[in-house]
C-alpha cells in the first residue's frame, strides 16, 4: 500500500512510530470514567484552548497604553469571530484556574503527594502557581480602569512583604508606577516567559504519569 | 457470512452505535468549525479595504492655532490641515511627491520638511528646496457653519 510505504519511509528516517505508539496506547483505567479523576485532563484541554486562542489574539493585540484598549475593542467588534475567540480565552482562563484548583484539592485530599508521586505533586503545584501568574499578568492586558487599578493594588500588596517587598515591586512594575514598562513586562510574562516554563513542566508532569502508569487511587 | 461473526443489533447495541456516530459528528463539526473560525479571524476585516471618498469631517476650526497643522489619517495615509498666520486654511496630503515619504510640518520656519531627502515645501505646498519638483497634493476643503473643517478625498 502507498500509505504504508510512505509511513515506513518516514519512520526509517524519523523513528517516530515507537514513541508515538507508546504515547497513544492507553490502558483504560476503571477510574477513567470517574469525574473525580477527570480534572487533570480537563485542565489540559483548557490549557490547549488557552494556547490556541491566545496565539490568535496576539495577532491583533498591541501592548502599549495608547493601543491596548483600542486593539481589544477592535478584536471584539471588528474582527470576525473576535468576540468569540476573546470570550473563549477569558472564560477558558477562569475555568482552567477552577479545574486546576479542583485537580489540586483532589490530589491533596487523596494524598497523591506520597511516594512515588512526589515529583508529580511538586510539578503540579508549581503549575498551579504558574496558572495564577497567567491570570494575574493577563488581567492587566486589556488596560481598563478595572485591570489597571487591580494591578496597582496587587503590586502594592507585594510591596508589603518584609525585606524583599520593595525589590519585588520594582520587578513587577518595571518602575515606580504602573505604566508602559509594566504593560510590556506583563505582556512578556503572559505570552512568553510563563508559557515556556509551564509547557516544560507540563511535559514533565505528563511524562511521569506516562512512564510510571496511572496510580490506582489509594 | 459465518453465523458467529454476525453482529446482532439489539436495542442497546443500536444506541451505542448511534452515540458513537453522534460523538464523531460533534468532534468533526467542532474541529472543522474551529479551523474555519480561526482562519477567518486571521484575516483583517473587509471594511479596511474600502476607500473613503467624498467630503469627510476632520478637526474644528477653533481648535487649530495659527501657523500650526492638524494631522488626520485617511485610507492609511496622513493628511495635514494647515492654518497659516494669515488665518487661511489649506489641506495637503503628507505624502512627499519625491519618493513618498511622510513630510513633517515645522512650526518654527513655517515649512513642510521631508525626512528622507530633505525636500522643503512652503505653506502653499510648493517645493523650495531638495530633490522634489512637484508641489504637495492639495485637497479641497470647506468649513461648515459649526466650524468643522471638511476635506474632499478622491
Ligand atoms: S521622499 Fe521626500 S525628499 Fe525624497
Structural write-up:
The complex is a heterodimer of chains A (about 220) and B (about 150). Chain A has nine helices and no strands. The longest helix of chain A has about 35 residues. Chain A is mainly α and about 220 residues long. Helix content of chain A is about 75%, strand content about 0%. In chain A, helix 6 packs antiparallel against helix 9. With about 150 residues, chain B is an alpha+beta fold. Chain B has two domains: about 40 residues; about 100 residues, Rieske Iron-sulfur Protein, CATH 2.102.10. In chain B, strand 6 and strand 7 form a beta hairpin. Chain B is elongated and about 95 Å long. The chains are: A mainly alpha (about 220), B alpha+beta (about 150). At the A-B interface, helix 5 of A face helix 1 of B. Bound molecules: FE2/S2 (inorganic) cluster. The site of FE2/S2 (inorganic) cluster (FES) has 11 residues of chain B, from loops.
| Level-2 CATH architecture of the largest domain in chain B | 3-layer Sandwich
Instruction: State the helicity of chain A in percent bands.
Output: over 70%
Number of helices of chain A: 9
Largest sheet of chain B, in brief, is: 4 strands, antiparallel
Mean of residue pLDDT of chain B? 87
CATH class of chain A: Mainly Alpha
Instruction: Give the low-pLDDT segments of chain A.
Output: none
- What is the ordering of alpha helices and beta strands of chain A? HHHHHHHHH
What portion of the residues of chain A fall into strands of 2 or more residues? under 5%
Give the C-level CATH assignment of the largest domain in chain B: Mainly Beta
The general outline of chain B is elongated
Which percent range describes the beta-strand content of chain B? 25-35%
Tell me the distance between the termini of chain B. Answer: 78 Å
**Mean pLDDT, all residues of chain A:** 90
CATH superfamily of chain A: Cytochrome Bc1 Complex, Chain C
What CATH calls the topology of chain A is: Cytochrome Bc1 Complex, Chain C
Helix content of chain B: 10-25%
Number of helices of chain B: 1
Listed once per kind, the bound small molecules are: FE2/S2 (inorganic) cluster
Structural class of chain A: mainly alpha
Amino acid at each position: 500500500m502507498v500509505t504504508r510505504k510512505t509511513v515506513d519511509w518516514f519512520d526509517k528516517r524519523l523513528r517516530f512510530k515507537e514513541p508515538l505508539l507508546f504515547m497513544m496506547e492507553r490502558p483504560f483505567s476503571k477510574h477513567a470514567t470517574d469525574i473525580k479523576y477527570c480534572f487533570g485532563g480537563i485542565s489540559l484541554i483548557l490549557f490547549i484552548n488557552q494556547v490556541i486562542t491566545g496565539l490568535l489574539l496576539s495577532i491583533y493585540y498591541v501592548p502599549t497604553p495608547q493601543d491596548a484598549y483600542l486593539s481589544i475593542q477592535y478584536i471584539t467588534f471588528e474582527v470576525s469571530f473576535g468576540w468569540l475567540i476573546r470570550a473563549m480565552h477569558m472564560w477558558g482562563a477562569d475555568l482552567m484556574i477552577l479545574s486546576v484548583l479542583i485537580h489540586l484539592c483532589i490530589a491533596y485530599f487523596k494524598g497523591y503527594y506520597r511516594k512515588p508521586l512526589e515529583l508529580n505533586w511538586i510539578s503540579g503545584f508549581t503549575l498551579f502557581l504558574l496558572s495564577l501568574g497567567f491570570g494575574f499578568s493577563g488581567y492587566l492586558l486589556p488596560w481598563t480602569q478595572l485591570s489597571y487599578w487591580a494591578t496597582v493594588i496587587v503590586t502594592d500588596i507585594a510591596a508589603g512583604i518584609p525585606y524583599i517587598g520593595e525589590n519585588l515591586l520594582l520587578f513587577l512594575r518595571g518602575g515606580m508606577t504602573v505604566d508602559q514598562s509594566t504593560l510590556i513586562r506583563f505582556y512578556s510574562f503572559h505570552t512568553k516567559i510563563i508559557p515556556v516554563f509551564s509547557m516544560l513542566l507540563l511535559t514533565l508532569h505528563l511524562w511521569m504519569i506516562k512512564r510510571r502508569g496511572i496510580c490506582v487511587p489509594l | 457470512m459465518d453465523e458467529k461473526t454476525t453482529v446482532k443489533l439489539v436495542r442497546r447495541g443500536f444506541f451505542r452505535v448511534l452515540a458513537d456516530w453522534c460523538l464523531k459528528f460533534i468532534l468533526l463539526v467542532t474541529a472543522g468549525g474551529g479551523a474555519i473560525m480561526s482562519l477567518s479571524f486571521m484575516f483583517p476585516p473587509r471594511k479596511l479595504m474600502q476607500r473613503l471618498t467624498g467630503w469627510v469631517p476632520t478637526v474644528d476650526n477653533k481648535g487649530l492655532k495659527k501657523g500650526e497643522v492638524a494631522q488626520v489619517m485617511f485610507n492609511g495615509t496622513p493628511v495635514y490641515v494647515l492654518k497659516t498666520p494669515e488665518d487661511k486654511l489649506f489641506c495637503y496630503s503628507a505624502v512627499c511627491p519625491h519618493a513618498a515619504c511622510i513630510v513633517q510640518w515645522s512650526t518654527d520656519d513655517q515649512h513642510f520638511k521631508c525626512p528622507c531627502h530633505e525636500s522643503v515645501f512652503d505653506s502653499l505646498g510648493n517645493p523650495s528646496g531638495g530633490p522634489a519638483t512637484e508641489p504637495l497634493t492639495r485637497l479641497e476643503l470647506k468649513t461648515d457653519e459649526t466650524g468643522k473643517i471638511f476635506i474632499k478625498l478622491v
